[in-house]
Write a structure and sequence with these properties.
By secondary structure, the protein is of the alpha/beta class. It has one domain: Nucleoside phosphorylase domain (Rossmann fold). About 35% of the residues lie in helices and about 30% in strands. Strands 5-9-8-6-10 form a five-stranded mixed beta barrel. Strand 2 and strand 3 form a beta hairpin. It is globular and about 45 Å long. The protein starts with a strand and ends with a helix.
């Protein structure tokens, strides 16, 4: 099984490249592709939905992965420890609104989907269980907005009821759907939007163990495929 790991920012992938001596395969349109090990490549596509969609389509067109895994940090709607791992059940795109045309809030036209569900979720949970890492499961909300507590965050929470919020996963999921490519996502909590007296975005703590966990997850998926 060929797996592609999607990351938005180069700094999210640094520890993965250094530990596994990742080799840059090519850079196309500003999107860099790295070989991590046999049948595992990593992509850095940029922040936001358009960058994520472009990079995912390039990845699928150039490398034809069997599975794309979106990796990175996210804000959480629950009050949990920074660095808590989250396995996505699916994604909504909270900034899509064609209700003026009579559509449900969040409906993405052309594919006519509100909830982009991840692939083989029970298999993904079994693989995460094999890593021995505690994790949460839930929906992600994607949009071109760096979320902070306030009226807009409350709207997203109360409308879509997600576990976490970020800026790429829903776009990656949409492109994978249109290409009939399997999709999963693992996120690490970088900040909690509600429940704390003081807002605190902590990128280093969120990334501290994520890439090790991602690779353990990838290895566990391979074992599952053989069973």
């Amino acid at each position: 099984m060929k797996i592609a790991l999607y990351y938005a920012m180069p700094k999210e992938i640094d520890s993965l490249l250094s530990k596994h001596e990742g080799k840059c395969l090519q850079t196309v349109g500003g999107v860099s592709f790295y070989e991590i090990k046999k049948d595992v490549i990593a992509v850095t596509g940029g922040v936001g939905k358009v960058n994520a969609a472009m990079a995912t389509q390039l990845c699928i067109s150039l490398y034809a992965p069997d599975l794309v895994i979106d990796c990175g940090v996210a804000g959480c709607f629950e009050n949990v420890d920074i660095g808590t791992i989250m396995l996505a059940e699916g994604f909504v795109q909270h900034d899509v609104d064609t209700t003026g045309c009579g559509d449900p809030i969040g409906l993405v036209s052309t594919v006519n989907v509100v909830r982009f569900m991840t692939s083989d979720f029970e298999k993904a949970k079994r693989a995460m269980d094999k890593t021995g890492i505690a994790y949460l499961c839930g929906m992600g909300a994607t949009g071109d907005w760096f979320a902070k507590a306030g009226e807009r965050a409350r709207f997203v929470r109360d409308t879509f009821h997600p576990l976490f919020i970020e800026m790429e996963g829903g776009a990656v999921a949409q492109v994978c759907l249109r290409n009939a490519t399997r999709f999963m996502a693992i996120k690490s909590v970088s900040d909690c939007l509600f429940g704390n007296d003081r807002y605190d975005f902590n990128f280093p703590m969120a990334m501290r163990d994520l890439n090790d966990i991602v690779m353990r997850f990838v290895d566990a998926l391979g074992v599952s495929d053989e069973q």
